[in-house]
Amino acid sequence: MRRVTTAMMVMALSLGLGCSGGGGGNPTVAAANAETNYTSQLANSLGLDLAALSTLFDTIFDPDAAAAAGVTFVLDDGPGVAPHTYDVQFPYDQNQNGTTDTTIIVRIVFNEAPGDAPRAGLTATLTLTAPLVGFDGTASGNGTVEWLTVGIRVSGDVTIDDRSSGRMIDVTIDPANPLTIKEATGDPDSQANVCDMSAEGTVGVTITSAQGILSMIWNLLSSSGLVNLSDISFAAADETNADLPNQDVALDDCGVTIDTWVGAFVLEWNCIPLESGITTHTFEKISSTQLRGTAVEDDAVVFTYTLNVDPNNPRVATGTFSETDSGGTYVETFRYTIAPHGNSWTQDNRYEYQSGPLQGSGGDCFGTATRD
Q1: SS3 state at 332
Q2: Do the Cβ atoms of 227 and 336 come closer than 8 Å?
Q3: What is the 3-state secondary structure (H, E, C) of 224-240?
Q4: 1 in a domain, yes or no?
């Protein structure tokens, strides 16, 4: 899958997982809960949006897709520079409105030339600074990533400077115990525990604010849809301390429901073999797990189809539709993933001609749709 890639490392290193609950009559415990609630807001507004970079990052393995997505790789072969060092530039939609408004540059040192390497076994070290979606601040850090046959394994350190709230968040994944991230399949050993991803490992988090310093460990199991927060301690600015009990939190749906999908979206799509276009998709709810989609091009209905929304992860809608063109009749299998804010979704599609001159041939399509 294109979507499970290095940018998920950025997401993983940037996530904050929150827990709810009041502080009773203890002001220190109340302040600690306020800080953990803040990290939940940060996770849903920031970290999960960064997962959209994963589609762009996987173009390391597909030069045609890189060109279509506007991703560029600049080799730095200057004196004293390590071999296979690249500055990779990504067009980035910081406010998630469907329009590229900035560029992120990630410096990557691969263990071998990425264009020649198989996916499994390719490793890299990263240095990055990225804007915060929805916040006045930046995330910066260093990390390592190992591509697996499916998914990635990551470690590193990231510091998030959220100037809008005055908080600093430090996130650490021990290189000796890296975090494994794959796209969730719904199988018993592949449950969605961070939106539509299944992660396993431990992550250390420290949040520094005017209220004090909160530290915790996130424990993730690919077999569980819950994230366990342990070793939660808070050192308040007034020098009082509080320890909170372990808590389980769920971030598998990111607050999205089937109703989040309802409405019209303009999809800009690209396919390989090279083809592109713009289609408006309008979704209406027809049951608790299904949507009816209407695709329109040039003010004419092209086709209607049914979307099946995963009840365990409503950010994901799947299905098939059929269409006939000069090449014959083809069936396209699609997977749409909507952003936590509900204003855009991405597609990961595969089509194959069932009849006609192009029978047996097919291709892949990708793109981003924004709410109209």
Answers
A1: strand
A2: no
A3: CCEEEEEEEEEEECCCC
A4: no
pLDDT digits (tens, 9 = 90+) for 292-311: 999 999 889 989 999 999 88
CA distance to 76, 134, 142, 231, per residue, from 82 (Å): 9, 35, 16, 39
Last residue of a domain, one of 196, 219, 250: 250
Q: How far apart are CA 60 and CA 145, in angstroms?
A: 13
Domain that includes residue 359, residue range: 258-371
- Write out the H or E segment, with its range, that includes residue 168: strand 167-173
> CA 67, CA 72: separation in Å to the nearest integer?
7
**Structure-token pair, residue 74:** 């600049």
Residue ending a domain, choose from 250, 280, 300: 250
Contacts 24+ apart (CB under 8 A), 297-304: none
Question: What are the DSSP calls for 108-146, one per residue?
Answer: EEESS-TTTS-STT-EEEEEEEEEPTTSSEEEEEEEEEE
Same domain? 74 vs 114 = yes
List, for residues 90-126, the tens digit of each pLDDT value.
777 665 555 666 777 888 898 887 766 677 778 888 8
Cβ atoms of 251 and 313 within 8 Å: the answer is: no
CB atoms within 10 A of CB 52: 21
The reply to whether 235 and 277 lie within a common domain is no
Whether residue 130 sits in one domain with residue 219: yes
Q: Decide: 249 and 231 in contact? Cβ < 8 Å.
A: no
Neighbours of 118 (CB within 10 A): 10
- What dihedral angle (degrees, nearest 10) is formed by the CA atoms of 99, 72, 104, 335? 50
The residues pairing with 230 across neighbouring beta strands, listed in sequence order, are 217
* Token duo for residue 233: 């301690």
* Cβ-defined contacts of 152-156 (< 8 Å, 24+): 152/4, 152/5, 152/6, 152/8, 152/9, 152/180, 152/181, 152/182, 153/178, 153/179, 153/180, 153/181, 154/6, 154/8, 154/9, 154/12, 154/13, 154/178, 154/179, 154/181, 155/179, 156/9, 156/13, 156/126
